[in-house]
Design a protein that fits this description.
Blueprint (H helix, E strand, L loop, with lengths): L2 H26 L17 E3 L8 H10 L3 E5 L9 E6 L5 E3 L5 E7 L101 H13 L6 H19 L5 H19 L3 H18 L1
Length: 294
């Protein structure tokens, strides 16, 4: 055979071999897996804004902190312990997202019974976070009701004579026996029974120390802090307002706590030269508690 005749056949064979090798390589090459989808973020938890209106500022702060909120005071009345909460924003019952410590804005009204002395506390000791309201769920639009098709009038049928059926005798069922009413469970006695009940008043928080112990510790603290400073006066007035207000709400052993508090007020007068007005306030509260406890 001459080279001219053989060359075309060789070219055909080489082409077939190259095509077969390419298909084999493509079949053995693994395909890349699809990229994983990003995980969807978890839904944020929600908080319910408590109602602290009308509460003493010293109590409103603890209520907000226990519910997971921070706070700040706005307006002309400063954050002294005995001042009262006039308004709050957002309103009570509002649902907000838990952004860490959502900050509630408070406006206070002054309490004429207590002097505005010391350094006011106009914000929580920890930083507040933004308020994000929970949007209400939109109600789906109601589908328009289809108009009923008019029924074709049926031709009146000839009346058939009604057969008189004999009356069936009524089956008299025996009356069920009345079930005995369960006896109401007796409520467990409180470890700190109140001296008297004030309707709608804040209950004594059992995670706080009792009023007599707080008053006794305040007297010990005053004896160990003989220097008159703004921070010392602020701490004393804060504790004083807590004890007097709690006793007036009927909290456990409020009378005993006020007696201890009066002795502490005398100690403040000896050390600092102030405290006569606070002592008079504690004495009026003591007379009121004794009258209501009888």
């Amino acid at each position: 055979m001459t080279l001219r005749r053989v060359a075309p056949r060789l070219l055909v064979v080489l082409g077939v071999l190259l095509a077969s090798a390419t298909m084999t390589f493509a079949a053995q090459t693994p395909s890349r897996p699809p990229a994983p989808k990003p995980a969807e973020p978890a839904e944020a938890s929600m908080l319910l804004v408590p109602d602290v209106r009308g509460q003493a500022y010293v109590f409103a702060k603890s209520t907000l902190e226990e519910s997971g909120f921070a706070w700040r005071v706005e307006g002309g009345v400063q954050g002294y312990a005995a001042n009262l909460v006039a308004t709050q924003a957002p309103a009570p019952g509002t649902r907000v997202y838990d952004t860490g410590a959502p900050a509630i804005t408070l406006r206070l009204s002054s309490n004429a019974r207590y002097p505005q002395e010391g350094t006011p506390e106009n914000a929580s000791s920890f930083a507040g976070t933004a308020i994000r309201l929970v949007d209400p769920v939109a109600k789906p639009k109601a589908k328009p009701k289809a108009k009923p098709k008019a029924k074709a009038k049926a031709k009146p049928k000839a009346k058939a004579k009604a057969k008189v059926k004999p009356k069936a005798k009524p089956n008299v069922k025996p009356k069920p026996k009345p079930k005995p009413k369960p006896k109401p469970k007796k409520p467990k006695p409180s470890p700190r029974p109140p001296a008297f009940i004030v309707p709608g008043a804040k209950r004594e928080p059992l995670d706080e120390m009792p009023l007599p112990a707080r008053a006794r510790l305040l007297g010990e603290w005053l004896r160990s802090h003989p220097t008159l400073t703004n921070s010392n006066v602020h701490y004393w007035l804060y504790q004083h307002a807590w004890i007097v207000t709690g006793a007036e709400l009927g909290w456990w052993h409020g009378e005993q706590a006020l007696e201890e508090l009066i002795r502490a007020d005398r100690s403040a007068q000896r050390s600092w030269g102030i405290g006569a007005r606070s002592e008079a306030l504690a004495r009026r509260a003591l007379a009121d508690v004794r009258r209501k406890s009888r």
